[in-house]
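Project outcomes to date are best conveyed with an example. Our students and postdoctoral researchers have been running inverse folding experiments weekly, and each run begins with a structure described purely in tokens. The record below, which covers 147 residues, was selected by the lab manager from last quarter's runs and is presented without edits.
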């Protein structure tokens, strides 16, 4: 049973590392989110893009929108292409990054792009602890039955 204690220590290190990763992910999400801004933009043109294994086929609109400094920006929308061509001149909600509005803009509002990976540090720790506990319990049971 002397090998069991180093295994518990290794499990504790894994839980600590996963907690650190979760904290860093939360910090990164907190860092990027304040740089995002939403506004409305006008569709000035669109073009068809061919799909491949990563991206589907569809129309990608080019938008003109005014950023918070008053500058007019013309940018191609990122994200999944639309299956139908948006009418030119129609206003659409635009989400852009303050420091790179001409290369980083998506269709939609800020609420549409809430992070789907909002797992908190506590939840990550609890999940790792429960998973590790089950694994260590099974190992301990096997060691007990092996004797």
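After processing, the design step wrote out the following sequence:
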């Amino acid at each position: 049973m002397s090998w069991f204690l180093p295994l518990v220590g290794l499990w504790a290190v894994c839980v600590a590392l996963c907690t650190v990763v979760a904290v860093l992910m939360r910090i990164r999400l907190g860092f990027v989110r304040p740089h995002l801004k939403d506004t409305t933009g006008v569709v000035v043109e669109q073009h068809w893009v061919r799909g491949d294994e990563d991206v589907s086929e569809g129309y990608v609109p080019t938008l003109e929108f005014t950023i918070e400094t008053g500058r007019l920006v013309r940018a191609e929308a990122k994200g999944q292409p639309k299956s139908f061509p948006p009418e030119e001149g129609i206003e659409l909600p635009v989400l852009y990054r303050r420091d790179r509005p001409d290369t980083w803009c998506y269709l939609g509002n800020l609420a549409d792009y809430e992070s789907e990976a909002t797992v908190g540090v506590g939840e990550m720790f609890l999940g790792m602890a429960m998973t590790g506990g089950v694994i260590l319990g099974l190992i301990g049971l096997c060691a007990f039955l092996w004797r």
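Residues 43 and 89 are 5 Å apart (CA to CA). The longest helix spans residues 4-32. The training component of this project remains on track.
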